Amino acid sequence: MCARQTEILTEKKPAEKTSCGSLLHEGPSAVLPNASAAVSLESSAEAGRYVVVNRDVPAGKILMAEKPYCAVLKLEVGGTHCTHCFHQLVDKAAVPCRWCSGVAFCGPRCRDLALATYHRWECKFFNLLRGSGMSLNCYLALRIITQHGLHFFKKLRHRLQEPPQLPSASSPHRPNDYLSLYHLVGLEEHRTPSDHFKRTLMSAFLLKVLQRAHFFGKWDEDANKPDADLSEDELLIGSLLLRHLQILQFNAHELSGMAFGDTKENFKKTKSVYLGLAVYPTVSFSNHSCYPAVGRYFDGNKMVIVNLRPLKTGEVLYENYGPVFTHNKLLERQRKLSSRYWFK
User: What is the pLDDT of residue 62?
Assistant: First the structure.
C-alpha cells in the first residue's frame, strides 16, 4: 500500500462508518443522524444531555443504529472473531496479520484497514498489551489514538478548547467527528487524587508504548532517561489518553454477539457472548434506568436500539447500564451503579 493511501486511511474514518439511517423508524433525525426522526435531544442541569421521543412510538421500532466510533475486540475471542468488524469466523478461513499471530480477520479488506491504521502501531506490542493485565477501557483509550495517527490530532489541537455545543437543526450532531467523543462527560472535576494518579500512570504506560512503536517518529534512547522532557506532540497525545480513560468509564458500551455452533444453521448451540468494548457517541446520550425503555442488539459491531414497549410523546429513552430490576435487588443495583457510574 503506497504512503499516500496509508496517510488517507490514517487520518480519516474508514468508509464503512456511515449513517445507518435506512434502518431507522420514520427515517433519520435532522439533528441526530444515527437516531430516528422520532427522537429528540434535550438537556438539563440535573440529567445533562439525554434523548426523548417526540411522538408516540409503537413497540419494536428501531430508534438508533450506529457504528462505533472506536471498538476493541476482547482478547479471548481474537481467534474466533474478526478483529476489525467483529463478525464470527464461521464457514471461512481466517486471514492473519502479516507480522503477528495475535489477531485474525474475516478477509483481506478488514486486514488491510487494520494494518493501515491501528494495528500498524499495536502489532509489535500486542503481547505486551495483552500481558499487562490492563482493562479493555485502557485498550480502547489507546485504539482511539492509533486508529487515526499523530497528524490527525495535531490538526485538531487548536479545536480542543472549543466549548461543546448542543446539536441543532442548523448544526447537527456529527458522530464520526472526534470532538463528539472528546466532549462526552468525564467528570474529571469530581475525581480523587488517587483516581487521577492511577489514570495518569496508565496514560504514561500507553504513551511509552506509542513512543516505542515510533508513533512520534524514530525512537531516541535519550528520551528514555528519567529527566527527559516530553515533546509537544507527546504531551498532546498523553493528555488525550488521559481524557479517553476518563470519558470511557461512563460512556463505553459492552459489545456482544451470537456465537454459532459449527455452522450458522446450527442454532441449537447458539449463545450470546461478550465480544468487546466500544464507544457510540449517539447512544451515549441515553441515560440509565433499571426498567429500560429500549433494548439493544448487534450486527458485527453496529449497535441497534429498539424500544421494548410503546412510548408516549416526551418519554425519556432510557437504556440499561447493566443492573436490571428483574435480576438484581435494589441494594445490589445501587452498589454497582455507584462504583462504576457514580450515581444510584
Answer: 97
Burial 54-80 (b: 16+ CB within 10 A, else e): beebeeebbbbbbbbbbbbbbeebbeb
Does the predicted model carry a pTM greater than 0.90? no
Q: Is the pLDDT of residue 25 over 80?
A: yes
**Tens digits of residue pLDDT in 142-187:** 999 999 999 999 999 999 988 888 888 889 999 999 999 999 988 7
d(CA 271, CA 178): 34
**Cell numbers placing 305:** 436500539
Q: Which domains does the chain have, with CATH numbers?
A: 1-183+250-344 (2.170.270.10)
